[in-house]
Design a protein that fits this description.
Elements (H helix, E strand, L loop, with lengths): L1 H14 L29 E6 L9 H15 L3 E4 L10 H15 L6 E2 L4 H4 L3 E2 L2 E2 L4 H7 L5 E5 L2 E5 L24 H13 L5 E5 L14 H11 L2 E6 L6 E6 L2 E5 L19 E8 L2 E8 L11 H13 L3 E4 L9 E10 L6 E8 L5 E4 L3 E5 L4 E10 L11 E10 L2 E4 L3 E4 L15 E6 L4 E4 L1 H4 L6 E11 L5 E4 L6 E4 L6 E6 L2 E6 L10 E8 L3 E6 L2 E7 L11 E3 L2 E2 L5 E2 L3 E10 L21 E5 L8 E2 L9 E4 L3 E4 L8
Parallel strand pairs: 1-2, 2-3, 7-8, 8-9, 9-11
Antiparallel strand pairs: 1-12, 4-5, 6-7, 10-11, 12-13, 14-15, 15-19, 16-18, 16-20, 17-19, 20-21, 20-22, 23-36, 23-40, 24-33, 24-39, 25-30, 25-36, 26-27, 26-33, 27-28, 28-29, 30-31, 31-32, 34-35, 36-37, 38-39
Helix pairs in contact: 2-3, 6-7
């Protein structure tokens, strides 16, 4: 009946007819044509495989402890190890101490764990190249049998011992193939165990050395594999020892896996190539297994993320902003000397610990101190300063410094590390930056790039003014800002959908001069000018007046930046980006154009009415130089650069 119900449900999805209530497998009082699939109802379970702990630094035990915390969150049925639990190669008293440390850590697991013996667990001290004792006896006293098996949910788990040594001499060695042989005693036991497990759904084997790898391990595993193959229900074999993940595929239906480390030494750290601290989590179903490797440190306890922590992280990300109190300026020779002072405020109700580190690609910069550690109590404000120096000179390394800001939020019983922030140093630009005077223009990607002129820098007085520039668009669809300081105030030039407009907020509303139809073409240079003469707002395209509207009164002001190549939002961020090239941007404190038409100059010269003039010929450090002589350089946003005027922006 259940199978027939599923068929009916599937047919109903295809014909979009309502599913009769008696056929529903999802409880609802709503009629729907969609049948929601239910999850598998089989007896699924998970187990974890832990790699080597030893062969690494002493502090590696903390890596294992972190893994244990995470495994408890995942709550598998059981945990298997693949050997090298203690560092070993020592006398019995030292071995006992290491054993106790390992067991104390593992006993924090909330589920059973099962050990496998590795060479570090067994090998004792050596003299003249020969081992003077081993720890097989101590291992079986404190960890368990050297080989054993158990059944769980109709599956069998088999732990093997891969350090028995040379069958003839008893010599133990991890590099001599003659010592990497399974004894007849263990082989016979394994054969009997697989016979007992014949009725099991799956059999899983665990050993320390990946014996199936040839070379130092010889060929002995071939006979073991044949035994496993003959059983018919062995699904996977897990090993460790090499401290890196490795999958050797499926052989006769049996998969071979090698785990990486859990605190052990790593030759290199390349997580995506398997060189990392991790553990395997295995999901077992009737039809087979699925696996995932989890790097230690990625599993989060959702119960630990309290509302306080969530709100604090949000406050740090959005409200923590160093305020520049004092900053030096670059001289005409690009030398710099002075104090850079910041005011910091903790926006949280718990302490923050911060590290501030100035850095730059430009080697001429130096700082004292080279970094600062701060502890800010809840809501505390504190100032911090750096003495900043730069030698004179211009070379290809010229760049401004940035400030790396690392923040730890000290929650109740936890330290929450925020991503490092990079803050630009607000070093003052030199009053004059030489012009390039070449055939270049500003190139913008239409996604995140613009040039910002701060309101305090602009200082555009009330009254008549002109905003103008040249543009060559790659894309005009949608809302596009060209030269904007709008936010229910000020002024802006838009080129949305190729239909230009100029708006000025006068008194209590915008006066808008907007073209009646799209006038701008992709790939063609256009001159665009917005003029306010105190009585009228006018829009010119290529020197022709295309729209005008009456307007008078005071311009409503704001403290937001003026953006070239974008509009501005209420937070002072760029939006509605322009895609293409922009050239010869000028803002003037006079109405430069009147009448029905004029001939635009292709390159502007500064005069007494020029507030800012961007030739867009070159970028200089983070700036787009101002040619007005006022030092009102634009700040480049999003990596925008100048490039030849011909061709398409950014390779489009």
């Amino acid at each position: 009946m259940r199978t027939w119900s599923r068929i009916v449900a599937s047919l109903c999805v295809l014909c979009t007819c309502p599913l009769p209530a008696q056929e529903r497998r999802v409880d609802t009082d709503r009629e729907s044509k969609v049948v929601l699939p239910l999850p598998k109802g089989d007896d699924m379970y998970t187990f974890v495989v832990l790699g080597d702990r030893t062969g690494g630094p002493a502090e590696g035990i903390r890596v294992l402890a972190k893994a244990i915390e995470e495994i408890n969150l995942l709550d598998p049925d059981l945990v298997m190890t693949v050997g090298d639990l203690v560092n070993g190669y020592n006398e019995t008293p030292a071995w006992i101490g290491q054993m106790r440390e390992y067991r104390a850590t593992m006993e924090k697991l909330r589920m059973p764990w099962f050990p496998v013996a590795g060479n570090h667990d067994i090998y004792g001290p050596s003299r003249n190249g020969s081992m003077t004792q081993d720890h097989e006896k101590e291992y079986e006293e404190h960890f368990g049998p050297l080989w054993y098996a158990f059944e769980h949910k109709q599956c069998w788990f088999v732990a093997l011992y891969s350090d028995e040594g040379n069958p003839g001499t008893g010599k133990k060695s991890i590099s001599d193939p003659a010592s990497q042989v399974m004894s007849e005693r263990q082989f016979t036991w394994l054969k009997a165990t697989l016979e007992k497990a014949k009725g099991g759904k799956h059999v899983f084997l665990f050993l320390h050395h990946p014996r199936w790898l040839t070379g130092q391990y010889g060929e002995d595993w071939n006979r073991v594999h044949d035994l496993l193959k003959g059983a018919g229900n062995v699904r996977a074999v897990f090993a460790g020892h090499i401290h890196r993940m490795r999958y050797d595929g499926r052989r006769d239906g049996i998969e071979y896996f090698t785990t990486a480390a859990n605190g052990a030494y790593l030759d290199i750290e390349v997580p995506k190539a398997g060189f990392l601290h991790e553990y395997h989590i295995v999901t077992v179903r009737k039809e087979g297994i699925s696996l995932a490797a989890l790097p230690v440190g990625v599993v989060i306890d959702p119960r630990a993320i309290t509302g306080e922590i969530s709100l604090a992280a949000q406050a740090i990300a959005k409200s923590f902003q160093p305020v520049v109190v004092k900053a030096p300026r670059l001289g005409a020779d690009l030398a710099c000397s002075g104090t850079y002072e910041l005011l910091l405020e903790n926006p949280c109700d718990r302490p923050l610990e911060l590290t501030l580190e100035p850095r730059a690609k430009d080697p001429r910069w130096s700082y004292f101190p080279d970094h600062v550690h701060l502890h800010l109590e809840a809501r505390q404000k504190q100032s911090v300063g750096f003495e900043v120096q730069r030698e004179a000179g211009l070379d290809r390394w010229f760049d401004l410094p940035v400030l790396g800001v690392s923040i730890d939020y000290l929650a109740e019983g936890a330290r929450i590390t925020m991503p490092e922030r990079i803050e630009a140093f607000a070093i003052g630009a030199p009053a004059r930056i030489p012009d390039a005077v070449d055939d270049r223009a500003l190139v913008l990607d239409g996604k995140r790039q613009a040039v910002r002129l701060d309101d305090k820098t602009l200082e555009l007085p009330d009254g008549p003014f002109t905003a103008e520039g040249f543009l060559q668009a790659d894309d005009l669809t949608g809302r596009r800002g060209f030269l904007n300081k709008t936010e229910q105030s000020e002024f802006g030039l838009f080129v949305s959908d190729g239909k230009p407009s100029f708006v000025v907020y006068l008194g209590d509303r915008y006066a808008s001069a907007t073209a009646k139809e799209p006038l701008l073409e992709k790939g063609r240079w256009h001159h665009l000018a917005g003029v306010f003469d105190g009585q009228e707002v006018r829009l010119y395209v290529d020197g022709n007046r295309v729209a005008a509207t009456p307007g008078k009164g005071e311009r409503k002001r704001n403290a937001l930046p003026l953006f070239v190549g974008a509009d501005v939002d209420k937070a002072g961020k760029p939006t509605s980006f322009f895609a293409g090239r922009i050239d010869e941007v000028r803002v003037s404190k006079s109405a430069r154009y009147a009448g029905a038409s004029f001939t635009p100059s292709r390159r502007f010269d500064p005069d007494g009415d020029t507030v800012v003039l961007l030739h867009c010929d070159r970028e200089f450090g983070p700036w787009l130089p101002d040619a007005s002589g006022q030092g009102r350089h634009g700040m480049r946003v999003g990596g925008v650069v100048c490039a030849p005027k011909d061709g398409k922006a950014n390779g489009r």
